[in-house]
Structure to design on (250 residues):
């Protein structure tokens, strides 16, 4: 077991009554899996990612990473955000190097590592470009390269394709699956939040359905289909329809 949430709840204190975002969530991920978390807006999907990464503390319960309780930021994780989260005054290379330098990597080693992952996301030649000079898809490639450059054991992705046009989204999904499946790359385990059921069925080994509010896990569905997934097949459609029906009932 790589990561596990055990009886986790998350409550925010407000000026009014406390707001319970998650209640009694139990969720585990094995090394090498690609897991998608789906659910309606506001059900707590993104909060689950932030608890796994240690960006937020749990209210009750615990987060385990390699069977050890998590305390503070999990440096074995990296996050790809929906809104790219690039620093506009830094170049592509500098944005990718940022986390490496923060972790104390020497400059030349950081440059070499950044160049490797910039090439892996097909941005070779754009190292000196600034975010304002990039398309949305290119910005998300930078975010992916930055996350992969720290070579995390667990890659977390928060609706990474939702701000992109459909064609760019399709291309990036295919490239991400290629990266995940590449035995020569360190990233082998992915947890991705999405609200698009078809996207989850296309990409995931397992689809975890969260319903709220407060958020709780109501289904954990193994996608037993060979890759690449045939999106127009009867089996694919059955998975999509089943998950949609479960979501509509919540």
């Amino acid at each position: 077991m790589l990561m596990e949430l055990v009886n986790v709840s998350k409550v925010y204190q407000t000026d009014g009554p406390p707001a319970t975002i998650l209640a009694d969530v139990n969720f585990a991920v094995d090394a090498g899996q690609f897991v998608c978390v789906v659910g309606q807006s506001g059900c707590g999907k993104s909060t689950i990612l932030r608890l796994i990464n240690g960006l937020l503390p749990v209210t009750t319960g615990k987060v385990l990473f390699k069977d050890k309780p998590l305390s503070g930021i999990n440096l074995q994780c990296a996050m790809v955000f929906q809104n790219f989260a690039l620093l506009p005054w830094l170049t592509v290379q500098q944005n990718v190097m940022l986390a490496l330098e923060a972790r104390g990597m020497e400059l030349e080693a950081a440059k070499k590592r950044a160049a490797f992952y910039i090439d892996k996301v097909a941005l070779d030649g754009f190292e000196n470009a600034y975010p304002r000079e990039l398309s949305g898809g290119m910005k998300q490639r930078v975010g992916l390269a930055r996350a992969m450059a720290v070579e995390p054991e667990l890659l977390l992705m928060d609706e990474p394709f939702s701000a992109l046009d459909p064609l760019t989204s399709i291309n990036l999904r295919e490239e991400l699956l290629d990266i995940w499946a590449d035995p020569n790359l360190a990233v082998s385990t992915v947890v991705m939040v999405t609200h698009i059921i078809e996207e989850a069925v296309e990409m995931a080994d397992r689809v975890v359905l969260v319903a709220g509010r407060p958020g709780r896990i109501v289904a954990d569905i193994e996608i037993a289909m060979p890759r690449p997934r045939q999106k127009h097949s009867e089996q694919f459609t059955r998975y999509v329809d089943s998950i949609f029906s479960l979501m509509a009932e919540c």
